[in-house]
Design brief:
Helix content: 40-55%
Strand order of the largest sheet: 3-2-1-4-5
Number of helices: 7
Strand content: 15-25%
Distance between the termini: 106 Å
Radius of gyration: 23 Å
Order of helices and strands: HEEEHEHEHHHH
Structural class: alpha/beta
CATH superfamily: Ribonuclease H-like superfamily/Ribonuclease H
CATH architecture: 2-Layer Sandwich
């Protein structure tokens, strides 16, 4: 029996790696995931410091009458195939908060997704549904249609145009999570730049010495 191999030193992509890519004008790809057990939406977005483009999207499905182990295997294998097919660098997934039995089962799927993302060095990052909605629409309680229209605009399309390409809400929500991660990354980069910029612009000027009035002789 062979000894097990433990992957304890897997390098994850960092904000500094992304900064370097931006400087070298290289494009990156993020995999957005709308988490679930029966339906898992996914979307691959390509971006640089200025533009974002949709590469592909879809939905992974599992049947409820199948054993849990088989469903989780299908999810893991499918996510891995997307990562390898499209050369993904980062992963954003939807965070769930419910405590029902169904949601607990869904969290098993989330664990599989995070594991696959970590193995491929994508530094998986979670976002709440309201965070993704707020980023794309500036309204954390936006409707599905509002999210779809806003996502289309972020991707350089006309409102409602996205439905012609991808009509499934799960995939559109995955795009929203991917966009949210891209926005988060750019904010992080700006925050690291701001202290330098601010220090350069707001250096305290030495107060000018007041000229004393000349005394009359």
């Amino acid at each position: 029996m062979k000894e097990g191999v433990f992957l304890d030193n897997i390098t994850q992509i960092t904000i500094e790696d992304i900064r370097t890519c931006f400087k070298e004008r290289k494009k990156l790809r993020v995999l957005g995931i709308d988490t679930g057990l029966a339906n898992i939406g996914w979307a691959v977005l390509e971006f640089d410091s200025q533009k974002v483009k949709l590469i592909s999207s879809g939905v992974i499905t599992t049947e409820s009458d199948k054993p849990m182990g088989e469903r989780l295997y299908i999810i893991g294998q499918s996510v891995e195939e997307v990562i390898k097919t499209y050369g993904v660098h980062l992963m954003a997934y939807e965070e769930l908060f419910f405590n029902s039995t169904n949601m607990m089962n869904t969290n098993l799927a989330v664990g599989v997704i995070i594991h696959i993302g970590w193995v491929y060095g994508l530094n998986p990052h979670k976002f709440r549904p309201q965070d993704a909605k707020y980023y794309v629409t500036r309204n954390n309680s936006a409707s599905k249609e509002e999210v779809s229209n806003a996502v289309a605009i972020h991707l350089g399309m006309l409102p409602n145009q996205l439905k012609k390409i991808q009509s499934v809400d799960h995939a559109t929500d995955a795009m929203a999570h991917g966009l949210c991660y891209i926005g988060f990354i750019k904010e992080q980069l700006l925050e690291k730049l701001n202290p330098i910029v601010l220090n350069a612009k707001t250096k305290e000027k030495k107060p000018r010495k007041k000229r004393e009035p000349k005394k009359n002789k």
